[in-house]
Amino acid sequence: MHTLRSFVTAVTLLLVVAACARAVAGGDVAPGAALQVQQSGAVLLDVRTPEEFAGGHAAGAQLVPWLYGGGRPNPEFVEAVGKLAPPDQPLVVICQSGSRSAQAAARLRGAGYQAVYNVAGGSVAWRQAQLPWVAAGR
Length: 138
Known about the structure:
- By secondary structure, the chain is of the alpha/beta class.
- It is built from six helices and nine strands.
- It starts with a helix and ends with a strand.
């Protein structure tokens, strides 16, 4: 009986740990890892301005600006992301350097998105890693 109780306790503990790990999935990832997450079905969100996006962006990225000119927050940010992905779909978030995307990723986690990955180093690091890129004007 004691063995059975220990087994049940161990299984319960493993399930709790697994659930917690899933709840906090995400964080900063290197560009190559971000590309792998995108290729496995995550939505790649570019949170730069429309002007920055038009100057070139990661292939497959969807534009949803985090801030507008003058640093004003986009009041419809979470709603716009919701039109692209439900809260249980993984998201990869990218900006120029990784700062705005980290803020946007935190906001999305706060809104209930379960797996949000921030591209460390942003589009600068993405290009340095020579990952798929759509040049300006395309």
